[in-house]
Amino acid sequence: MEVTLGQLIVPIVLSAVLVFVVSALIHMVLQMHKGDYHQLPNEDEVRAVIRKGNPAPGQYITPFCSDMKQSGSPEMIKKFTEGPVGFFYIRRPGPPTMGGSLGGWFAWCLVISVLVGYLLSHTLPPGTPYLQVFRVAGTAAWLGYAGSIGANAIWLGKPWTVAGKEIFDGLLYALVTAGAFGWRWPH
Known about the structure:
Blueprint: H1 9-29, H2 43-53, E1 58-62, H3 74-82, E2 86-90, H4 98-123, H5 130-146, H6 149-156, H7 160-183
Antiparallel strand pairs: 1-2
Helix pairs in contact: 1-4, 1-7, 4-5, 5-7, 6-7
């Protein structure tokens, strides 16, 4: 007999809510990520130059190469050597709104929980012991919450100190997800 995704609605929603709460504690109460970003010493000038170019919201890199062959040219090597080298995102202008971001974050938590539930429903039968459900759910959730963070440190230059904290966050999210699924697993 197989567990259906419908039988897992309670642990799916419960795990998403728990991750949301743990995330709020990490960011708002403990403020573990407060020092993760730094101000540019000439922020106003940089903002003025970017605003003058009027880039659309999106993902950008500097210096930009449209072709990997171009990255070996003397001109590009000079740009990379002189710096700065960076990846950045441009959002729509306007004051930050937490409602949309928090709603999107909760929806993402639900997506990960649904995927964890889907995996569990096809790999573990009803009555599986708590620790076995915990192990599989925790592994899957950790991959969902933290799986690409190391790649961002390697390829995009995210500082490993920041990546390490984010991977740890993902571990905490995975533990509460695993606990919810283990606790509410069908018998």
